[in-house]
Design brief:
The protein is an all-alpha fold. The protein has 20 helices and three strands. The protein has a three-stranded antiparallel sheet with strand order 1-2-3. Helix 1 (about 15-30) packs antiparallel against helix 2 (about 35-45), helix 6 crosses helix 8 (about 200-220) and helix 15 packs across helix 16. The protein is flat, with a radius of gyration of 33 Å. About 25% of the residues are buried.
Length: about 525
């Protein structure tokens, strides 16, 4: 059988290419080989153009059909090639006046049927009203509305594009309860990813389904479209399926954390403010959402704990930070290590001299960019600034020959709680450090009130954890290590003899690098010697 070889752009995933080839084979078989009709359809399928326009009426002869109008022509195409997303009748190359007349005649027939059924059932049945438009027309209008109202919400724009690309067009008049459930089921069953790498995660599938529901609710209230939510629309199943194979193995249940050597390496390579917020997160069990929202007025240096005067049994003096965690709206208190305080003071001087050019204000954000704007954003991807800085820092460690575990910056928040272990008393302390709504599963009454939480125990545990983190804290003042090959060159260079060019040649050959790289190494060593 003559299956013509087709080529696809590199942007098309292997899975999508395989699907298109399958549809092309169906076109070949249904049309009886390659002819004007199959070539017309194949061109759109190969390019991934959706929907496929209805072929011209003259091409109906290839299916052995005598032309009988666009309605019959489309019905035949759908029956012969059901996997092809065909254009609607409104997109057919025919006169709008003919389509309007066809709609009028069809609605009259529909109302006649409704009246007949009403007479048989002896029940009043409302006359069916015409619902103009198609699903893709409504989705496109919804897309324009969201882009205008939320121009920077690119994640939501992408979800709407996925709805348009994934769902076949259909008249809104046919979008009843069963059709809505079919739309839901596509995402409930976790649709394949657009890049062909498996299925969407349950979380992403849930987000896509939620966007679909928001679209239908918007269309229900829109004056442009006459579509209304069917009765029992709210009872449709929206649960996301979770296959057994997606369950994590028992060995994967433990929370991954950085080793002490990894954390020390990160601190050695970090500049400011990365060094500050890494130590801060270890000290306070904060994540990006917490440290990124701390203001200068939340920090209390060299003074008694603010609650000590109100009866909190704690030692005199100290350095503290108090913060209301946005997620749980629970107030947390943490003792600041001396090393953390030193970094805070150093960062404050830098902010006043080089960023704000003024004394910091109480409501200024602690961790900010060189432009003065907060590193933690207010959009859905607010943690991207921290993640990008952390990714660059890990790459820097890799380049110098000190690779660290490929974990996100949020792992820093789990280091203290993981160190506390599984003992119940320590687990309660860890939960207090994490500012959970209820510190532990067994303490819903005992530690319900802030004043009753084991603050002193937490601060004592923080002191113990500081000693555990000593290798990391020592790394704060240690110089950034030289790249591995540069370190080897630094040891090799004084032992070489001969002219400079000869020594450069020998060093380049020994280290398997270019001579230009060796000259850069020499410049680095000379700069380090002058410093």
């Amino acid at each position: 059988m003559d299956y013509r070889p087709f080529k696809f752009p590199r942007s098309v995933s292997d899975k999508e290419a395989e699907d298109r080839i399958t549809r092309l084979k169906e076109v070949y078989k249904a049309c009886g080989g390659w002819n004007d009709l199959s070539n017309f359809v194949a061109d759109f399928v190969r390019k991934g153009i959706i929907p496929v326009p209805l072929p011209n009426r003259e091409l109906s002869i290839h299916l052995g059909m005598k032309w009988d109008g666009w309605v019959r022509w489309r019905q035949l195409l759908v029956s012969k090639l059901p996997s092809i997303p065909w254009a609607t009748l409104s997109e057919a190359p025919t006169s709008p006046a003919i389509l309007a007349a066809l709609r009028h005649v069809t609605m009259e027939q529909l109302n006649e049927v409704a009246e007949t059924i009403s007479g048989l059932d002896q029940k009043d049945r409302p006359v069916v009203a015409a619902i103009p438009g198609t699903l893709h027309e409504a989705l496109t209008a919804y897309q324009r509305y969201i882009i205008e109202s939320e121009p920077t919400n690119f994640d939501r724009h992408g979800k709407i594009r996925q709805l348009i690309n994934r769902h076949q067009d259909q008249p809104l008049a046919t979008l009843g309860l069963d059709s809505c459930q079919a739309l839901f089921n596509y995402w409930r069953q976790r649709a394949p990813r657009h890049d062909g790498k498996g299925q969407y995660t349950p979380k992403r599938s849930r987000e896509q389904l939620a966007e679909l529901v928001r679209f239908l609710e918007w269309m229900h209230l829109s004056e442009k479209f006459g579509w209304r939510e069917p009765v029992d629309f709210r009872r449709l199943d929206r649960s996301i399926s979770k296959e057994t194979k997606d369950r994590k193995a028992l060995k994967a249940i433990s929370i991954p954390t950085f080793s002490l050597s990894d954390l020390a390496s990160l601190v050695r390579h970090a500049g400011m403010p990365e060094k500050l917020w890494i130590i801060w997160c270890l000290n306070t069990s904060h994540g990006a959402a917490e440290v990124g929202r701390v203001q200068w007025e939340d920090i209390y240096l060299n003074q008694d704990h603010p609650w000590r005067a109100e009866g909190l049994k704690i030692w005199e003096g100290g350095d503290w930070v108090g913060f209301l965690r946005p997620k749980t709206e629970v107030l947390g208190w943490w003792m600041l290590w001396p090393e953390t305080v030193t970094l805070v003071k150093h960062w404050k001087k830098h902010c006043e001299a080089n960023i704000y050019h003024r004394p910091v204000k109480p409501d200024d954000i602690l961790i900010c960019r060189e432009s003065g704007s907060p590193l933690y954003g207010t959009s859905k991807n607010g943690q991207s600034g921290f993640r990008n800085q952390f990714t660059r820092l890990k790459k820097c460690c890799d380049r110098t020959g000190f690779p660290v575990a490929n974990l996100p910056p949020g792992t820093l928040r789990d280091q203290f709680s993981d160190w506390c272990g599984s003992d119940q008393a320590d687990a309660i302390v860890a939960s207090v450090a994490l500012t959970h709504g209820s510190p532990h599963g067994t303490d819903k009454l005992l530690y319900k009130h802030y004043s009753n939480r084991p603050w002193k125990k937490l601060f004592e545990k923080q002191q113990e954890f500081r000693e555990y983190c000593r290798p990391i804290l020592n790394a704060i003042e240690e110089p950034t290590p030289l790249p591995q090959k540069l370190g080897e060159f630094a040891k090799m260079w004084p032992t070489l003899t001969g002219s400079k060019m000869t020594r450069v040649t020998v060093a380049a050959k020994s280290l398997e690098v270019s001579k230009a790289t060796i000259y850069r190494y020499i410049e680095r060593l000379e700069e380090a010697a002058q410093a």
